[in-house]
Amino acid sequence: MPHQPYRIGLLGHGVVGSAFEALLDERKADIESATGRSPEIGGILTRSRGNFQEILERSDVIVEVMGGIEPAGTYALETLRAGKPLITANKQLLAARGSELLGLARKCEMPLRFEASVAGAVPIIRTLDGALGAAEISRVYGIVNGTTNFILSAMEDGKEYGEALVEAREAGYYGADGPTEDVSGKDAAAKMAILARLAFGVDATLDDVYADGIEELHPDDLQYARDFDMTLKLLGSATRENGRLALSVHPTFLPRTHPLAAITGPINAVTVEGEAFESITLSAPGAGGPPTASAVLGDLLAVMRGESYSLSKQATLPIVHDTTHAFYLHVEVADDPGTLSRIAGVLGDEGISIQSVLQRGLGETARLIFILHPTTRPHLQAALTTVGHLDVLRSSPRVIHVLG
Ligand SMILES: NC(=O)c1ccc[n+]([C@@H]2O[C@H](COP(=O)([O-])OP(=O)(O)OC[C@H]3O[C@@H](n4cnc5c(N)ncnc54)[C@H](OP(=O)(O)O)[C@@H]3O)[C@@H](O)[C@H]2O)c1
User: Fold this and answer.
1) Cβ–Cβ < 8 Å for 265, 143
2) How far is the CA of 65 from the centre of ligand 1 (A)?
3) I need a labelling partner for 115 at 20 to 30 A (CA). Which of 32, 68, 367, 386 fits?
4) Most distant CA pair in the chain, distance
5) 19 to each of 12, 173, 296, 307, how far by Cα in Å?
6) Is 170 a residue whose pLDDT tops 70?
7) How confident is the model at residue 287 (pLDDT cuts 50, 70, 90)?
């Protein structure tokens, strides 16, 4: 006997939407045998095709892969109000209006799933909501933007920033909208807001996440990183410390022995830490049609089985932008006797101790590269203001976070 159809209203038929349609076609038989229903695309909406109300009426579920806040937000709310489950890959929408959407889904008792919104094929949302739903988590951090990881990997191989950017475009890692959201850290910040909600139960939005991008990096910082046996990644992190939650995205140096140091190219990886389970790292392709479609398909199977997120955590932790970090500090100074000890003295006056230092002579000037023991931004900033007034300084100090 033929299976009863399960109709999918597909909003968006671009990179993810068309890959989802193809993957659904391939995997249909297994979904039928797992659920007893036959999933089929019942309508497609693009700018030039389809009508949302008609698609909604004849669908059992809506899959939103069009992106942007509007009209995607209105369509998402209308879907839930109509008593239909919603699957979305839209991180911008969730980071801006996650509370409203999840609140409505709860009220309407409708599943709302969004695995593809963070880190492509990495099943981090269901891991945080399911396996770690009852765990006390101290930190979630990782590489959640494949485009910048690809660019940084290319720069470590000797490419200039501009060249790496062109390579990323040619490889299809960003499209017509350009790479601004990626390189500014905003895309990663949206994903960290979503992860913070799942891991810590806070009502975080994009504005709660401090984001530093990769546009201001200097190639010689990557060079010096090698001398310290470190590599550079754009890391998003959500860290519980002293009863507060620090949410940020920063370029960060990692020791080459760190598990995330080996994540190169467009791959994403997320590490979750907690006292009971210590550390879990998941990695997979973070973007592109098939990996993202694979996450959407997993959500479809879950919805067809009647599974909703538990969203068991609710907290009102104050959200801050920063916590204590080790830092890399780059200063260019006059190559005079006593300069190093003057700068070390200023750092010491702010209670900042030096882990290691490297000096490179450049004729009349010298570069000093410090790795500083963990301190807070305000302490470091106070020290840098004093350093900025020293007559030996020849360029503005540069600072990058260091992990581990
Ligand atoms: N691409 C990835 O690797 C990736 C990874 C993870 C998550 N995501 C998320 O998945 C979503 C889709 O990304 P994508 O890369 O597939 O985008 P895309 O290739 O630009 O496709 C967007 C699709 O949505 C349609 N659309 C956009 N605005 C519309 C509107 N106002 N009315 C009707 N249709 C509209 C477009 O129609 P037209 O064809 O007529 O323009 C197009 O078919 C986004 O939320 C993105 O953040 C993407």
Assistant:
1) no
2) 5
3) 32
4) 89
5) 11, 15, 10, 24
6) yes
7) confident
Task: Give the DSSP per-residue string, 139-164.
Answer: EEEEE--HHHHHHHHHHHTT--HHHH
What are the b/e assignments for 169-179, b being 16+ CB within 10 Å? Answer: eeeebbeeeeb
- Global pTM? 0.95
Query: DSSP secondary-structure letter at 223?
Result: H
Supply the residue whose CA is at minimum distance from atom 30 of ligand 1. 47
Cβ neighbours of residue 367 closer than 8 Å, sequence gap 6 or more: 330, 331, 332, 333, 359, 360
255, 261 Cβ separation under 8 angstroms: yes
Are 297 and 286 spatial neighbours (Cβ–Cβ below 8 Å)? no
Cβ atoms within 10 Å, residue 301: 15
State if residue 49 touches ligand 1 by the CB under 6 angstroms criterion. Answer: no
Distance between CA atoms of residues 331 and 181, nearest Å:
29
> Mean pLDDT, to the nearest integer, of 287-311?
95
285 prior amide bond cis, ω within 30? no
Query: Which of 11, 16, 149, 187 gets mutated to test ligand 1 (max ligand atoms within 8 A of its CB)?
Result: 16
Residue 83 Cα to ligand 1 midpoint, Å, equals 24
φ/ψ region of 85 (left if φ > 0, alpha if ψ in -120 to 50, else beta) reads beta
For residues 115 and 90, what is the distance between their CA atoms, to the nearest angstrom?
10
**Would you give the distance in Å from CA 324 to the centre of its chain?**
20
CB 247 within 8 A of CB 397: no
Collapsed DSSP state (helix, strand, coil) of residue 378: helix
pLDDT tens figures, 8-27: 999 999 999 999 999 999 99
Phi and psi for 206 in degrees, rounded to 5? Answer: -55, -40
pLDDT in tens, 229-259: 999 999 999 999 989 999 999 999 999 999 9
Pull the structure tokens for residue 146.
């494949």
Q: Return the percentage of the chain with pLDDT > 70, whole number.
A: 99
What residue has token string 């030996």? 392
The predicted pLDDT at position 175 comes to 66
Question: For residue 16, which atom of ligand 1 is closest to its CA?
Answer: 16
Rounded CA gap, 317 and 315, in Å? 6
